Amino acid sequence: MSELKPIVLYQHASGPNPWKVVMILEELGLPYEEIFMDQSSVKQSPYTSLNPNGRVPTIQDPNTGITLWESGAIVEYLVDTYDKEKKLSFDAFPEKYHAKQFLAFQISGQGPYYGQYAFFKFYHPEKIESAIQRYEEQTLRVISVLDKCLEGKDYLVGGKCSYADISFISWELGAQGMITEFGEKTKQFTNYSAWLHRLLARPAIARTLERKAAMNAHK
Ligand SMILES: N[C@@H](CCC(=O)N[C@@H](CS)C(=O)NCC(=O)O)C(=O)O
């Protein structure tokens, strides 16, 4: 892959979604360069001409000419375009669709519920207990689904670690980092905990998380 030009990733030091993309780039050994954005510049031109949603991540790939936003779409693009050896993805039926299913669950279930849980617990100016409770329940429900799907399995799809597994890591760690009682509340989900440890032991993931931690420690 040495002939590839670096993929440009617009990213954020602490938010979970761009780091999900970094994990895939690292796993696939793709060259990339990062442009770190702050909260206000993502809402303004020129960034909004790349991503009208005013959020990160966005990528620009000079090798194909694409500009793409939404982390799930970026993950799919990267594996479709560059994972020719199917290190993290699948050609075979039904695994190919099961991996898409879990990515869809991550994007629509994990990301929004965990995000709202953190928002109502820490950032909303009023303390609305019913909203906190609702999103905590939904967060734990997502984990219970993962735990069930992982019964008797090391990974979600096809007996190997794929983008489907990796896509969940960022938000799991985000929730653990923000919510101190999270570890206690998720202790009962033993398949889920073992799976997360397995994923965190991967060199590309450990490398990514070390860099993210170092970056946030200097703030
Ligand atoms: N659905 C989007 C969510 C992106 C998102 O919310 N990104 C956060 C960082 S993790 C962000 O840009 N926040 C800035 C803001 O909301 O203004 C994706 O998966 O890419």
UniProtKB/TrEMBL annotation:
UniProt GO MF annotations: glutathione transferase activity
Entry's EC annotation: 2.5.1.18
GO CC entries: cytoplasm; nucleus
Gene3D superfamilies, sorted: 1.20.1050.130
Record carries keyword Transferase: yes
Domain GST N-terminal: 5-86
InterPro entries: Glutathione-S-Trfase_C-like, Glutathione-S-Trfase_C_sf, Glutathione_S-Trfase, Glutathione_S-Trfase_N, GST_C, Thioredoxin-like_sf
Enzyme class, broadest EC rank: transferase
Pfam family, one: GST_C
Catalytic activity line of the entry: RX + glutathione = an S-substituted glutathione + a halide anion + H(+)
GST C-terminal domain span: 92-219
Entry keyword Flavoprotein: no
Keywords: Transferase
Similarity comment text for this entry: Belongs to the GST superfamily.
Function as written in the Swiss-Prot or TrEMBL entry: Involved in the oxidative stress response and detoxification.
Protein name: glutathione transferase
Species for this entry: Apiospora kogelbergensis
